[in-house]
Amino acid sequence: MYIRTEPVMLAIDIGSSSVKGLAYDQRGQALAGIQARVPCPLVYSDGGAEARLNRIVQAVDQVLDILHLRVGAREVLGVAFTSIASSLVALDEGLRPLEPVLTYADTRSHHASRALPLDLSRVHRTGCPDYSAYWTAQIPYWKTAFPHEARLWCSVADFLLYWYFGGEVRTSYSLASWTGLLNRHTLQWDSTLLQQLGLSVSELPLLTDATVPHQHLLPEHAKRWPKFAHIPFFPAIGDGAAANLGSGATRAGQVALTVGTTSALRCVLPSRDTPVPDGLWTYLIDQNHALMGGALTEGGNIHQWMRETLNLGPWNELEGQLAHMAPDSHGLTFVPSFSGERSPNYDPLATGTVHGLKLSTRPIQLLRAGMEGIAYRMADIASRLHLALSGPPTYIASGQAVLSSNVWLQMFADVLGGPVLVTDLPDESTARGAALMALSALNILDPYDLPSRVVVGAFEPDPQAHELYQDAMERQVHLMKQLKQAAQQTPFLV
């Protein structure tokens, strides 16, 4: 007997630690059994954070191999993509990639980030502050640091789709807005910045909306994946934009609290022209919607670093110990800027520190202080984000790191002074967001107007804990200022 199976949308998530592939039905629900994950971590050095492009291509190939097998006889509507943002790939005259490939976490271009004239209108035009993560700094650094002649610059996902389809190298408005070179008002590469950087439009990808797909795989790829040969492959959107869509944080007053490897607070705005509060950024999701927020390079990576360095053991064995500790009861002040500081001060030379150590300090106290320290930095972002919101926010949690710890979820509620909700969505909100955008391109659903998700966990702030944390936050800010002043006076500290 023939049993009809529902069509599926596939989503590929190119992250900082792995490439994931998942399948979703036409309502945006994940389908069990059609998924794949291939590790593909960034390579870190002193100030460097590089992607291995060949390894990423191989990982995406492997994920597509698995999905191609597991979809069986189902109709595949398309393949959606989301990717780390931003990344910088240099291509030579033959449009072949050159090494190295820089990522958002690479701070070696910090001197170049200060080379352009200070211009407040630049932040208004692009939505991006001065920082080493953007192409405004990375392209000049790349040109001077590496002995290659680049013909064109693009993102990792842009090259990947060019590799599969040929033609012109294209990028979505979403990924382009993460480069710091897109004029968000005109939806064109910013002419003033191009002139200042000595770049031409021909050296950058063709701009397009994420709803305009690539189709008809090149013969060698069509032979490998015949089921995918003529279906649409949609341009990638930024991982932050995808995470908001996928977590359901799209309505007024809803703020996505994401803590995976890194961490961020973001909200969706129904306009791409909203002024940017000091210390934050505004990227595009599509032509009509923007994403405002701030991000840290630190999150679950710091938790993992402390567990491994302090030999604390598995995460799930620590929850009970952490839960029995009162807020800020350890006497420690933890600054989590292990890879420089992103939002809101954008200091690539900042470093992490812990103050207040005693012989009585225990490893578990250091872990708790580190988790609180990340929450304090997120609260600084939240205070600035409130300027763009019409009322008190509700935080919707996503990301494996924070969803794995009820202690951390409660900590965020207490520090932020607002409710933190966990919905019935699985952790893979980024891949889901990409799938929703692709389903929208096919006029199947509206990703900004989906039914509210079922709340499976609600963490309300404790007023007493909130007050304690306010004092601890002030202590952290004071320490950060003192450290910056000392570093400026004593260069060897940086």
| Strands side by side in the biggest sheet | 17-18-16-15-21-22-23
**Helical amount:** 25-40%
CA(first)-CA(last) distance: 70 Å
Mean pLDDT: 93
Q: The biggest beta sheet, please?
A: 7 strands, mixed
Number of helices: 15
Return Rg in Å: 22 Å
**Low-pLDDT stretches:** none
Helix-strand category = alpha+beta
Strand content: 15-25%
Sum up the overall morphology in one term: globular
Oligomer: single chain
Q: How many β-strand runs?
A: 23
What's the arrangement of secondary structure elements?
Layout: E1 8-14, E2 18-24, E3 30-39, E4 43-44, E5 49-51, H1 53-70, E6 76-83, E7 87-91, E8 97-103, H2 120-126, H3 135-145, E9 152-154, H4 156-165, E10 170-172, H5 173-177, E11 182-183, E12 188-189, H6 191-197, E13 206-208, H7 219-224, E14 237-238, H8 239-247, E15 254-259, E16 263-269, E17 281-284, E18 290-296, H9 300-309, H10 319-323, E19 333-335, E20 353-355, H11 363-385, E21 394-398, H12 400-403, H13 406-416, E22 420-423, H14 429-441, E23 455-459, H15 463-489
Helix pairs in contact: 8-14, 9-11, 11-13, 13-15
